């Protein structure tokens, strides 16, 4: 500590009273996170208590902050479960806070976590769309891992599910069980998940020299799935498979198909995505779908954060495979020899 630097100097620079500066430096709960950060920043800038603060910086609190924009816990809770498995093995614990998708609240939560000494942050999204990176001044130098929604900064560490791989596998599976007239029902076109799953599907169509009979975009809803399935059968009576980009869409599609006399999977096979129990395992028939492996994403995010704390940071985007869960909605049909040899395939034209 400089002999010329006093607590009053810190208070003056932070524009607070000496008493408030003292409370902030001692992490008093009654001081707002913003005030604490302002005082800490002033103290660091002036070199106040620098020796002690440097010594403390070498120690870890064992706490990890997990900030999520997922307001209903669908993504955050399994990710937290995975993170805690990894963190628990290293004597760390996670503190979960929800930003409800509001940047100002996210920043406020990070302020609070930072001044209370968390070792790092895991930022969890729920859309798969890329997001702006956190401001380094906000994170105060803490290592940050982005999960599910990647950072737009390629130098950051982001962990996502492999939606492209899922789309590719879905079409390959349908072709392998003998389906040839395949449509894709997607959600909104501005969602990265929809773009990536469609991209993967198109890659497989091209690889096998096929083309989809239709690719339709609209909403992540059962209503859209039902309406789209009915429209597809009306326009393409020979339709025999639908790849739906969410379980909500898939369950709606099944309902739409059954309402017009189509059997699932005998007439039309249906695949979903998300493996959300309320829509997939609790449907009739149960849905073949892809699991986003959120728990594994949580484990990986926690391990990468521990690596960063150990001086081995990761950079770029890491994709976690989405395993396929085969259920009743794609049970393969038994073809007769005549069906197998006499069928006319709809192939991609040049």
Automatic annotation (TrEMBL):
InterPro entries cross-referenced by the UniProt entry: HTH_LacI (IPR000843), LacI/GalR-like_sensor (IPR046335), Lambda_DNA-bd_dom_sf (IPR010982), Peripla_BP_I (IPR028082)
Record-linked Gene3D superfamilies: 3.40.50.2300, lambda repressor-like DNA-binding domains (1.10.260.40)
Q: Which GO terms describe its molecular function?
A: DNA-binding transcription factor activity; transcription cis-regulatory region binding
* UniProtKB keywords: DNA-binding, Transcription, Transcription regulation
Domain HTH lacI-type positions:
5-59
* Pfam families for this protein: LacI, Peripla_BP_3
Q: What is this protein called?
A: LacI family transcriptional regulator
Q: What is the lineage of its organism?
A: Bacteria, Bacillati, Actinomycetota, Actinomycetes, Bifidobacteriales
């Amino acid at each position: 500590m400089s002999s010329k630097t006093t607590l009053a100097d810190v208070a003056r620079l932070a524009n607070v009273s000496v008493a408030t500066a003292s409370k902030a430096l001692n992490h008093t709960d009654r001081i707002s996170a913003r005030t604490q950060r302002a005082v800490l920043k002033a103290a660091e800038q002036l070199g106040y208590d620098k020796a002690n603060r440097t010594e403390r910086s070498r120690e870890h609190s064992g706490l990890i902050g997990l900030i999520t924009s997922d307001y209903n816990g669908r993504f955050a809770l399994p990710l937290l479960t995975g993170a805690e498995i990894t963190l628990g093995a290293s004597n760390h614990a996670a503190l979960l806070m929800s930003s409800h998708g509001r940047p100002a609240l996210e920043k406020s939560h990070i302020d609070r976590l930072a001044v209370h000494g968390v070792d790092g942050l895991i930022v969890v999204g729920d859309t798969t769309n890329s997001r702006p990176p956190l401001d380094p001044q906000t994170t105060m130098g803490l290592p940050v891992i982005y999960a599910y929604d990647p950072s737009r900064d390629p130098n950051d560490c982001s962990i996502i599910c492999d939606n492209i791989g899922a789309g590719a596998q879905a079409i390959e599976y349908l072709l392998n069980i003998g389906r040839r007239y395949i449509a894709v029902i997607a959600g909104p076109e501005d969602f990265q998940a929809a773009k990536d799953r469609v991209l993967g599907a198109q890659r497989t169509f091209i690889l096998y020299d096929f083309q989809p009979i239709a690719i339709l975009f609209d909403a992540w809803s059962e209503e859209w799935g039902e309406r789209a399935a009915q429209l597809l059968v009306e326009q393409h009576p020979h339709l025999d498979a639908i790849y739906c980009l969410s379980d909500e869409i898939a369950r709606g599609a099944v309902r739409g198909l059954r309402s017009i006399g189509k059997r699932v999977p005998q007439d039309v096979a249906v695949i979903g995505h998300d493996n959300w129990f309320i829509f997939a395992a609790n449907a009739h028939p149960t849905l073949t779908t892809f699991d986003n492996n959120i728990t594994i994403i949580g484990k990986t995010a926690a391990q990468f954060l521990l690596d960063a704390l150990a001086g081995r940071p990761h950079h770029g985007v890491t994709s976690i495979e989405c395993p396929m869960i085969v259920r009743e909605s794609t049970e393969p049909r038994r073809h007769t020899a005549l069906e197998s040899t006499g069928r006319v395939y709809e192939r991609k034209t040049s």
